[in-house]
Amino acid sequence: MKLIVGLGNPGAEYTITRHNIGFLVLEEFARVNNIKFKTSKRFNALIGECPIGKEKAFLAMPQAFMNLSGHSVRPILNWLKIGSHDMFVIMDDIALPFGAIRIRPKGSSGGHNGLNSIIDSISTQEFPRMRIGILGRKKIKDLSGYVLGKFTKAEQKNLPEILDSAAQACECWIGQGVNAAMNKFNKYGG
């Protein structure tokens, strides 16, 4: 069993915002693999599952705000009876150029509130994650406004290709592991 967690904020006003790229990737992965999401009150998350190759994949989009994501993740890990190494977390990264993908087997939160919440809730940084770059310009005066802002038209044009690559990276991680996913999908650029 593998768990993939996409991070974002619930609510229609956040749907196509930079901070919700984790949700967008998971939605693309679900679309490609014909996975339907359902609301889970138990986990306060949208969840879905299906076989991917020889593995079973469990998808989760926590429905608390980003900084409370761990409140959904810990009960899911406990319920699935899997370790953190079988969880893949997808999130935005303001330090990476727009569209860049960076997969790592573990690491700090890098100041990401959703990642901080998960690390605090499960008491470890030892889990694979995929950061997707959202930095589209050189200087940002209002960081919060930028990450919570909608993608520009130019960014939206490139979004399908980025989401497709990220969804493929999820599938690669499930079937071949984090090193293979890093080797195939880590890229810097836009």
* Cα Rg: 15 Å
What does the overall shape look like?
globular
CATH architecture heading = 3-Layer(aba) Sandwich
The number of distinct structural domains comes to: 1
Distance N to C terminus = 32 Å
The helix/strand order is: EHEEEHEEHEHHH
Can you tell me the CATH topology?
Rossmann fold
Question: Roughly how much helix do the residues carry, as a percent range?
Answer: 25-40%
Derived from helix and strand composition plus strand pairing, the structural class reads alpha/beta
Main pleated-sheet profile? 7 strands, mixed
Task: Kindly estimate the percentage of residues that lie in beta strands according to DSSP.
Answer: 15-25%
User: How many DSSP H or I helices?
Assistant: 6
Task: Going across the biggest sheet, name each strand in turn.
Answer: 2-3-4-1-5-7-6
Number of E strands: 7
Name the poorly predicted regions: none
Q: In CATH, what is the homologous superfamily?
A: Peptidyl-tRNA hydrolase
**What's the average pLDDT?**
92
Q: Could you name the CATH class?
A: Alpha Beta
Overview of the molecule:
This protein is α/β, with parallel strands linked by helices and 190 residues long. It has a single domain, classed as Peptidyl-tRNA hydrolase (Rossmann fold, 3-Layer(aba) Sandwich). It has helices at 21-32, 70-80, 113-122, 143-147, 153-176, 178-185; strands spanning 2-6, 38-40, 45-52, 55-62, 87-97, 101-104, 129-135. Strands 2-3-4-1-5-7-6 form a seven-stranded mixed β-sheet, sandwiched between helices.
